[in-house]
Amino acid sequence: MFNPKPLYEIVQETLPIRDFRDYWEEFVVRPPYQRKSVWSKKKKQDLLDSLFRRYYVPRIVIREVRRDETRTAREVIDGQQRITTAKEFLDDAIELPKSLTDIDATLPGKKYSELPPDLRRFVDRELKYNADIVKGIDDPRNRAHQKIAAEIFWRLQQGESLTYMEIAHARLASLSRNFVVKYADEIGFDFAAYEPVDSNPSKHPFFSVIDRGNDRMQHLALLTRLLIFEEKDGPADVRESDVMEYIDKHQRDDGIGNDTFENEPTAREVLKVMRAFYDVFKEDTMIANGEGAVKELRTEYFIISIYLLLRHLLKYYVWDRPERAAFLSFTHDFHQRWSDEKADDVDIQTFSNRRQQTAREIEVRHQIIRQIFFQYLSAKGLSLKTKDDRRAFSEAERILIYRHDNGRCQACISEQKPDKECIVPWLEYDADHVVPHSRGGQTVISNAQVLCRYHNQSKGATIPSAASN
Question: Does residue 198 form part of some domain?
Fold first, then answer.
């Protein structure tokens, strides 16, 4: 007889709605694979109407999760808003609807604490939710258990329209997913305590200057696309399927709660460009005036084009305050030209007609915006200083530099340390640019010096004073 072994057990229970106020800490109302959703006031009051009339209310689905050897939590797979609405009513955060007038004319507008004793007793003892308790997949660190829980959630949402990013968000074992959630979402999840966190101090300020909402995870999708660009070193296919594939390919057995992806060169570079992007647009008048975001940065394909232009400039040109100011001014000018979309403006017409998320169309936009940017600089009498294409000194050059400085750290000498303390062993020696490469310094002997590892690492992109040369 065909009889596959079930992957989990379901136990049916009846839960008084009062449990959701009295024992709120026992419930994980927003699991890590779900988004925080909010019902309208009308929808909440419709639920209260159904409860008071004893109408059918769909069963809630709860998973038993083991927090440690002695404690469990109840994770809400389905029923987040039904539970939240019950708690809000018991907390006096929402009143009963006018629709209950035909049952009792005194009910509409009443909060829980305003009800007479007999009605409060009715609420406490008679209002209940039927629940299916899922047991046997209770390890929150087990990738298979979390995948099953997420599968149950998805299948229960068949009547809902989940976006591709909401599905990707549930890939808890993906290292890139964890990075994207950490830096692009407003909310978080504490896996150690296994509880949701309704704020996220790690969210990157990049998202504070763009005028795009995140109600359907638009910020998470955008950050994933930026990671793909960095991995491909420029324009690439970033369609919905490409975003999903990128999240999926970074799934690991030890991925749940694992934040190590941020140490990858791709991630570090994206964070650097995003910070530079923020540093440009935080000076915008709209930000200074408290408007909340730069209105020009609203359309995703426009934002992507501005980002890729900035990434290119950071890679090949010296970048400082004057360059940031010029870039901000250009963005305003280019956005106005893009918005006007004049029929005889061939470049803008081509730019606007290549709005798809394919490598080819993004490359066309990238070439156009780069050309227009440098035309803009020329018209303003401005120019950018290129970086030296060669960053590292050759072995022969390193030997000459070491001999020229007699194997002494020039910063240690500047600090007037004893000669013995200035000696740098060959194996610990770094050939350093006097004028940093990032500030336009060339990779030539005349712009080189011996530094010990301490001074090389602590120097950063600063130009030494005359006293230290």
Answer: no
